[in-house]
Amino acid sequence: MSEPRYRRVLVKLSGEALMGDEAFGIDSDTLAGISAQIKAVIGAGVQVAVVVGGGNFWRGGTVAPALGMETATAHYAGMLATVMNALALQDTLENSGVTVRTQSAINIQAVAEPYIRRRAIRHLEKGRVVIFAAGTGNPFMTTDTAAALRAIETGAEVLLMAKNGVDGVYDADPRSVRTARKYERLSYIEALSRRLGVMDSTALSLCMENDLPIEVFDLAAPDSIIQAVAGNSGGTHVSHRESVLLGE
């Protein structure tokens, strides 16, 4: 890969991104492709942490009203879905020769370390991939918020938001508005005020308050994670800088 722009990154993977062309669960080829990119990034000397979602198995906000389940309980079940994805990614990475540590915000000592900030940073310094599972460990908090929080806690230089089939942030929904234009650069304030769907508002506010830049890109693009680490994601860069639409 080309010279990395960042030396410590946190990659946010949605659960749906792990499905590939499947309707449910995990696609092995997709998981292998993600792992190969992470291995290449580690090989370039970049420290990598990962937060995984669980939407390929369970979405608490959707399931709770459908089943009449208490919302907090449904959210805890969703956290367990992220643990399944974390273990699958861990295993695939380890099979490719990458050293991995999975840390869970919910105490599950049989399968993962508890989340301890200083230990996570030490793992990163030793060149290990650290996968953060179970969100923040609290209901009503998304894995986007977990990604922002863990990135800030561990001193990541950027939050890499790998989207499923979306190559950046647009000024309107590109699936329904043919004239929608993509932002090359987007300010936190505009993203919040216009509700542009970068991530949930709590996560975005955390990034803004702690000056953590965000790269939003399409995971399905060739070598997408590698390119994002090199600063060539072709997506949208979110920071305090003034917004710029492509073509302006």
Q: What sequence of helices (H) and strands (E) makes up the elements?
A: EHEHHEEHEHEEHHEHEE
Number of helices: 8
Query: Strand order of the main beta sheet, please?
Result: 4-3-5-2-1-6-8-9-7-10
User: Any idea what the CATH architecture is?
Assistant: 3-Layer(aba) Sandwich
Percent range for β-strand residues: 15-25%
Largest sheet: 10 strands, mixed
CATH class: Alpha Beta
Distance between the termini: 30 Å
> How many β-strand stretches?
10
Low-confidence stretches: none
- The assigned structural class equals alpha/beta
User: What is the residue-averaged pLDDT?
Assistant: 95
The figure for the number of domains is 1
Task: Give the % helix.
Answer: 25-40%
**Rg (CA only):** 17 Å
Q: What is the assigned CATH homologous superfamily?
A: Acetylglutamate kinase-like
As for the CATH topology, it is Carbamate kinase
Shape verdict: globular
How would you describe this protein?
The structure is a single chain. With 248 residues, this protein is of the alpha/beta class. The chain has a single domain (8-245), classed as Acetylglutamate kinase-like (Carbamate kinase), CATH 3.40.1160.10. Helix content is 36%, strand content 19%. It contains 8 helices and 10 strands. The chain has helices at 28-43, 60-67, 71-95, 117-125, 143-153, 188-193, 201-209, 224-229; strands at 8-13, 47-52, 100-104, 113-114, 129-133, 158-163, 183-187, 214-218, 236-239, 244-245. It has a 10-stranded mixed β-sheet with strand order 4-3-5-2-1-6-8-9-7-10, sandwiched between helices. Strand 1 (8-13), helix 1 and strand 2 (47-52) form a beta-alpha-beta unit. Helix 1 (28-43) packs across helix 3 (71-95), helix 2 (60-67) crosses helix 3 (71-95) and helix 5 packs parallel to helix 7 (201-209). The protein starts with 7 loop residues before the first strand and ends with a strand. The model has no long low-confidence stretch (mean pLDDT 95).
